[in-house]
Structure formats: C-alpha cells, structure tokens
C-alpha cells in the first residue's frame, strides 16, 4: 500500500489483469506469470527429451498424464493473457497426449513455442514509476468533499491523475483546467452570472462586479465582509489561472513538464477544496 499525496488515501500498488482488466499490474505479478509460462515450456522440452531418450521403452500412463497436465497449465496461462488461439492449440495437444498415450512430434512443439513467442512479443507495456501509481484510476483524487459537491469533475479528475501517472503532463494540465471550469461555473451561479458558452474573462468580470456590489446590497448578510473576502480571492485566483495557464493550454501553446503538472495538481486540488467549503454544483 502507498499514500496518495493528492488525496491522502492509501491505495494498492497493483492488481491482476484477470481480476481487473486494463488496470495497473505490478512487475512482480508480471514476473510470476512469465515464470509460470517459462516453466511450462521448459517442462514440455524436458518431457519431449525424456520421451526421445526412452524411445525403446514404453512410458507409463502416469508419464503421459503428467505431460498432459503441463499442457493444461500452459493453456490456462495463455488463456489468462488472452492468447486464445494458442491456448486452444495447447489444449488440443493435451487431449492428444491423453488419448494417444504419446507426445506430439518435436516440430509441433517448436511451432507452438514460436507462435507463443510471436504473440507475446506483440504485448507492450508502459511502466508507471512507483511514486506515481497512486494517481492512476483514482476516483477521489481531490478528496470526498470535492467528489461529492462537484460530481461532474469525476471524469476529468480521473483522467488528470491517469495522465500524470503516465507522464502525459500537458494532458494532465488540460484536464485540470476543465475541472476548474466547473468550479468557475459554480462561483458564477452563486452570483447569477451567465457562464454557459461564455469565455472565462467575461464570467470573471461579471463575478468581480457582483462581489463589489455586495457593499451596496441592503439585504447583505451579517458576515458579508467574510463573503466578500472569500469570493474576491476566488475570482482573483481564476484570473491568475486564466492568464498563466488556461489560455495557453486551451490554445495549444502551453507544454508542461512533470514538475509543472504536479504543481498544478496540488494547486488545483487546494483551490477546489476551498471552493467546496461554500459552493457546490
């Protein structure tokens, strides 16, 4: 288990692809599966050799049953990896051994090994550094309160975490800007400022104007000064993000490295958590 620096939650480092397809798989799990397959292929070769050495003797039924079990195990490993064609071929060999009480010819084994090698060579993997695995497929990257109050951020937050984990730093920032846009709409809604299909500049101008008018509102609440400070800070933050990040990212001019993406993850997380203390969708 590891601690998620963004959400503070403990998360598993890996899971088996059979149980959870398209998710993280640890190097250890991959090694275990590879060793299992290599062991099966090695036993196939050893049994083939034993059979050839004992060609003048009649092997016992137990020998052939053990050979068939080796093929059964290999077929199961291939099936787990999705190599169904080779799994079926291996199962057929196991059935042949059981029914004929003899091993297939050597060329059949060699062809099977070559086909397995060819198919496995087509599998490619992208390694996720250990310190970034906690960001991958996180459903609560910014904590429970943001998740609950800004529910429509779920997709972009998960994708932002995935992109950061996989080193897609500019894409990570792009998704974070989409998260902030949801926060901006919630702030605009608080002051009845139109935000649908409007650019950030116009929305922020409308919010700042509404905040200034709190001073003149005769029906303002007793804590209006606290409200003014809170909403002014929020509006100012959106101005900073718009000028420094959002405009460049939205118009394909910005390119960001790992540290910049992490900085934005931390900053946007902190800001969205602040918004969640008073606002919601």
Short structural description:
The chain has ten helices and two strands, in the order E-E-H-H-H-H-H-H-H-H-H-H. It is mainly alpha-helical and 281 residues long.
Describe this structure in words.
The protein is mainly alpha-helical. It folds into two domains: 27-121; 130-276, Four Helix Bundle (Hemerythrin (Met), subunit A). It contains ten helices and two strands. The chain has helices at 27-53, 61-80, 84-100, 106-121, 144-149, 154-165, 169-190, 200-212, 224-250, 258-276, and strands at residues 2-3, 10-11. A two-stranded antiparallel sheet has the order 1-2. β1 and β2 (10-11) form a beta hairpin. α1 (27-53) runs antiparallel to α2 (61-80). 28% of the residues are buried.
Features:
Four Helix Bundle (Hemerythrin (Met), subunit A), 281 residues, two-stranded antiparallel ribbon, rod-shaped, 2 domains
Summarize the topology.
Layout: E1 2-3, E2 10-11, H1 27-53, H2 61-80, H3 84-100, H4 106-121, H5 144-149, H6 154-165, H7 169-190, H8 200-212, H9 224-250, H10 258-276
Antiparallel strand pairs: 1-2
Helix pairs in contact: 1-2, 2-3, 6-7, 7-8, 7-9, 7-10, 8-9
Q: Which class do the helix and strand fractions yield?
A: mainly alpha
Per DSSP, what share of the residues sits in E-state strands of 2 or more residues?
under 5%
- The succession of helices and strands, N to C, reads EEHHHHHHHHHH
Low-confidence stretches: 1-17
Q: Rounded to an integer, what's the Rg over CA atoms?
A: 30 Å
The DSSP helix count reads 10
Share of residues in helices: 55-70%
Number of strands: 2
């Amino acid at each position: 288990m590891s601690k998620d620096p963004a959400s503070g939650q403990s998360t598993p480092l890996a899971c088996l692809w059979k149980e959870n397809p398209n998710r993280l798989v640890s190097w250890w799990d991959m090694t275990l599966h590879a060793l299992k397959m290599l062991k099966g292929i090695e036993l196939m070769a050893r049994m083939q050799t034993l059979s050839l050495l004992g060609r003048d003797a009649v092997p016992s039924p137990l020998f052939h049953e053990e050979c068939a079990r080796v093929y059964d195990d290999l077929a199961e490993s291939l099936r787990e990896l999705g190599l169904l064609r080779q799994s079926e071929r291996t199962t057929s060999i196991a059935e042949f051994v059981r029914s004929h009480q003899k091993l297939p010819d050597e060329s059949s084994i060699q062809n099977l090994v070559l086909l397995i090698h060819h198919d496995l060579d087509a599998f490619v993997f992208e390694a996720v550094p250990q310190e970034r695995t906690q960001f991958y497929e996180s459903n609560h990257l910014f904590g429970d309160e943001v998740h609950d109050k800004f529910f429509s951020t779920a997709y972009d937050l998960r994708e932002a975490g995935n992109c950061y984990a996989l080193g897609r730093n500019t894409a990570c920032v792009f998704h974070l800007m989409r998260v902030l846009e949801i926060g901006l709409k919630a702030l605009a809604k608080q002051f009845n400022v139109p935000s649908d299909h409007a650019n950030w500049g116009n929305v922020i101008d409308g919010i700042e104007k509404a905040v200034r008018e709190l001073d003149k509102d005769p029906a303002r609440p007793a804590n209006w000064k606290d409200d003014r400070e809170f909403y002014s800070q929020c509006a100012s933050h959106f101005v900073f993000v718009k000028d420094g990040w959002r405009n460049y990212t939205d118009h394909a001019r910005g390119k960001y490295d790992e540290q910049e993406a992490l900085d934005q993850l931390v900053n946007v997380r902190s800001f969205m958590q602040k918004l969640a203390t008073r606002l919601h969708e």
